[in-house]
Amino acid sequence: DVPGARAGVDALPIRENLRGKSAYGAPQLSVPVQLNTNENPHPPTKALVDDVAESVREAGRELHRYPDRDVVALRTDLAAYLARQTGVPVTIDNVWAANGSNEILQQLLQAFAGPGRSAMGFVPSYSMHPIIADGTDTEWLPIFRREDFALDVDAAVDAINGHRPDVVFVTSPNNPTGHSVAIAELRRILDAAPGIVIVDEAYAEFSDAPSALTLIDEYPTKLVVTRTMSKAFAFAGGRLGYLAAAPAFIEALLLVRLPYHLSVVTQAAARAALRHADETLGSVAQLAAERDRVSAALTAMGYTVVPSDANFILFGLFEDAARTWQHYLDEGVLIRDVGIRGYLRATIGLVAENDELLRVSGKLAAKEL
Ligand code: PMP
């Protein structure tokens, strides 16, 4: 009896390229062990929560006013963090921020892609890249990775030369496969690309590979590096993503961003979380060690584990990945079916959660492998 419910999406005058498409769909289920969305499993410290609460309280006095449209204080803090983490002397003029790196990616496609333009990605990779391409009416050009899911740089360069895409996405470390892309390989892609190259470094803090930030000065008209506070920073609920690029890119994004897109509350909370970066990022080494422990244990059970530089692992081989995903769920462990035949992806959690993943995996290995 919901008013209007008799009309389905197909009855709407929706854009043709959105017809029949599905929405981003990681199930949000309440189960004991949630290892499906690549978050940092460590809850914020009391000191961080207190700092966020106090900062938001203070910011609350300004809630009748629009927030700082240009996000000056937070961008300054993010630039300082990036400079510290990568050694590249970026400043506020190199940094832009938005509600999650998904919004950053959307703004980039709004400015640099859209109708009549194309974006290329090396799949399997992050599922939102094609969805944001659809949302901005950008033609999506998927190019397959090698059989072992590593990026085939020769094939990538050939595809770029053949299709001349306006935007190239390189995810490093790649979600869901975990591989990083070396700087020399990125240079080859940047040299070939006629338009912009977005290096999506959502998981950079988990990897020892050098950041693409080191290439910004070399490719000021091509390179954009996107980052997020959702993963290593344990701030997924705060919604804060950012990018580093030459200052001209930030000027371009000012043309498409909605004014006041980052609320007073978001800006204050993110700055507070950044003040606690050292304690939060202290969990990164431990998560990397857990990733290696889980990978070794799964390998010992007979699973195929794709080597990962991030806080998740892709593993198999399963005869029917969807069925196996359900088996894990029935045992209280939520992992992710990313639609790659034979494989599932598990986020690295707390030690006890990982032990649960291994317990169920051991049980299944006896049956499946
Ligand atoms: N890029 C990649 C590769 C991701 O895996 C994710 C999160 N799943 C994001 C971007 C977006 O994260 P957020 O919008 O939370 O910053």
Automatic annotation (TrEMBL):
Molecular function (Gene Ontology), one example: pyridoxal phosphate binding
Residue positions where N6-(pyridoxal phosphate)lysine is found in the record: K231
Main EC class the enzyme belongs to: transferase
Cofactor requirement: pyridoxal 5'-phosphate
Domain Aminotransferase class I/classII large: 33-358
Known partners and oligomeric status: Homodimer.
Protein family (similarity comment): Belongs to the class-II pyridoxal-phosphate-dependent aminotransferase family. Histidinol-phosphate aminotransferase subfamily.
NCBIfam families given in the database record: hisC, PRK03317.1
Name of the molecule in the record: Histidinol-phosphate aminotransferase
Native source organism of the sequence: Rhodococcus spongiicola
Encoding gene per record: hisC
